[in-house]
């Protein structure tokens, strides 16, 4: 079974440019999460989709970040315009549909390493 | 105050040693607890869930103390391949966001 995939693996952009990150969750996983790790800090939550709906976007830093999950399959995270402090590793994770019989494990993708110069 | 606190280490131990990591969490309503392992420049991967009764998986034992809001991981007979960063992860509600500790780095030396 394919795991969570993310594209691109690396992105180097200049301040002010736009970048779009993509995440493909494990097939059948309704829950999709975005996290970010900036240098020297812990991994922090950005937002959570259940199917195509935003369940929790309390971790989104500001309105330069826009996440979508049209059709409830893959998700994109766009940063526009990018700032220096946006540099870090962006992880996507997915988990099974939310019901009592499902296991609560989140499966992580390999991450996108974003560098803003 | 951070949601999850861990000693960053590094813990440098010889092969065959027993090593223990601790973690504390701040929200008493937290429901699910995990240890994830992260290799350098890789994604976090689930090592084991942590249950109130304690649980063991081979050389790994996890314990949860809800009264003290404390989670531990014990690794026995350390292998070189155990070298990694161990992330303490807490979840307030099932299928909700994870709160991560900053990770504890383990180096197992020959």
Gist?
Helices cover 0% and strands 47% of the residues of chain A.
Question: If you had to describe this structure to a student in words, what would you say it looks like?
Answer:
- The complex is a heterodimer of chains A (117) and B (110).
- With 117 residues, chain A is mainly beta.
- Helices cover 0% and strands 47% of the residues of chain A.
- In chain A, the strands form two sheets. In chain A, strands 2, 4, 5, 6, 9, 10 and 11 form a seven-stranded mixed β-sheet that branches.
- Chain A starts with a strand and ends with a strand.
- The mean pLDDT of chain A is 93.
- Chain B is mainly β.
- Chain B is built from no helices and eleven strands.
- Chain B has strands at 4-6, 11-14, 19-25, 32-38, 44-50, 55-57, 60-65, 70-75, 84-91, 98-100, 104-109.
- In chain B, strands 2, 4, 5, 9, 10 and 11 form a six-stranded mixed β-sheet that branches. In chain B, strands 1-3-8-7-6 form a five-stranded antiparallel β-sheet, with no helix packed on it.
- The radius of gyration of chain B is 13 Å and the shape is globular.
- Chains A and B meet through strand 4, strand 5, strand 9 and strand 10 of A and strand 5 and strand 10 of B.
Residue share in helices of chain A? under 10%
The total beta strand count of chain A reads: 11
Low-pLDDT residue intervals, each spanning 5 or more residues of chain A: none
Residue-averaged pLDDT of chain A, rounded? 93
How many E strands of chain B? Answer: 11
Give me the strand/helix succession of chain A: EEEEEEEEEEE
Task: Kindly report how far apart the N and C termini of chain B lie.
Answer: 38 Å
Shape of chain A: globular
Most extensive chain interface and residues per partner: A-B, 25 and 22 residues
Rg for CA atoms of chain B = 13 Å
**Main sheet of chain A?**
7 strands, mixed
What is the overall pLDDT average of chain B? Answer: 94
Estimate the strand proportion of chain A.
over 45%
């Amino acid at each position: 079974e394919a795991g969570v995939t993310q594209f691109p693996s690396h992105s180097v952009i200049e301040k002010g440019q736009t970048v779009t990150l993509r995440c493909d969750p494990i097939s059948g996983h309704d829950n999709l999460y975005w996290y970010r790790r900036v240098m020297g800090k812990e991994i922090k939550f950005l937002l959570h989709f259940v199917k195509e709906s935003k369940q929790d976007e309390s971790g989104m830093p500001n309105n330069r970040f826009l996440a979508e999950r049209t059709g409830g399959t893959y998700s994109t995270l766009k940063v526009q315009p990018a700032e220096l402090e946006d540099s870090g590793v962006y992880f996507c994770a997915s988990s099974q549909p939310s019901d009592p019989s499902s296991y609560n494990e989140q499966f992580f993708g390999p991450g996108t390493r974003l560098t803003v110069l | 105050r951070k949601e999850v606190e861990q000693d960053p280490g590094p813990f440098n131990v010889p092969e065959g040693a027993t090593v223990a990591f601790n973690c504390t969490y701040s929200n008493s309503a937290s429901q699910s607890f995990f240890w994830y392992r992260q290799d350098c420049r890789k994604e976090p991967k689930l090592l084991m869930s942590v249950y109130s009764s304690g649980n063991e998986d081979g050389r790994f034992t996890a314990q949860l103390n809800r009264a003290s809001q404390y989670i531990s991981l014990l690794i026995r007979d350390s292998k070189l391949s155990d070298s990694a960063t161990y992330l303490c992860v807490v979840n307030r509600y099932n299928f909700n966001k994870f709160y991560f500790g900053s990770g504890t780095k383990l180096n197992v030396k020959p």
